[in-house]
Write a structure and sequence with these properties.
Shape: globular
Structural class: mainly beta
Number of domains: 1
Strand content: 35-45%
CATH architecture: Alpha-Beta Complex
Strand order of the largest sheet: 6-7-8-9-4-3-10
Order of helices and strands: EEEHEEEEEEE
CATH topology: glutathione-dependent formaldehyde- activating enzyme (gfa)
Oligomer: single chain
CATH class: Alpha Beta
Helix content: under 10%
Number of strands: 10
Largest sheet: 7 strands, mixed
Distance between the termini: 24 Å
Length: about 140
């Protein structure tokens, strides 16, 4: 039996939405697509892709609101603080994509990002660091398979 667990939450100081995953993610990647970056308000999104069977909302699920930023992309926000926590994408029905900044800081997330995706969509003021990770102009499957 594994004791692996990573917890996350929204930004509410009282009664936050809380969630967790209990198995190492399928992958973690840096995403530069306009849908992710415009939704999170940053120049990149760090995404942990976890199996639905290992992902669970553990508190205040009633505060979660869905927003379809694309026809196939279903983003979950807290109705009180507005925090974008995770999403489901129709192309990956068995996985939940978790925004890494909503997870506990300083804990082992199960792996580290393995690539940059949608680099052609990056904001022009953002420079991808010289980190040796592969860069892909669009979507590219993980190298972990």
């Amino acid at each position: 039996m594994s004791n692996f667990i990573v917890k996350g939450k929204c930004r509410c100081e009282e009664n936050p939405v809380q969630f967790q995953y209990t198995k190492e993610p399928f992958e973690i990647h840096y995403c530069l697509c306009t849908d992710c970056t415009e939704t999170c308000g940053g120049s990149l999104a760090i995404i942990a892709v976890v199996e639905n069977a290992e992902f669970e909302v553990t508190a205040n699920q009633d505060k979660i609101k869905n927003f379809d930023s694309l026809e196939t992309c279903h983003r979950k926000f807290c109705t009180e603080c507005g925090c974008h926590m995770f999403l489901n994408v129709d192309a990956y029905p068995d996985h939940t994509l978790v925004h890494v900044p909503t997870l506990e800081r300083g804990v082992d997330l199960g792996q580290t990002p393995d690539r940059w995706v949608f680099t052609d969509s990056k904001h022009p003021m953002f420079t991808i660091p010289d980190d040796g990770l592969p860069r892909h102009s669009g979507w590219e499957a993980t190298s972990n398979t």
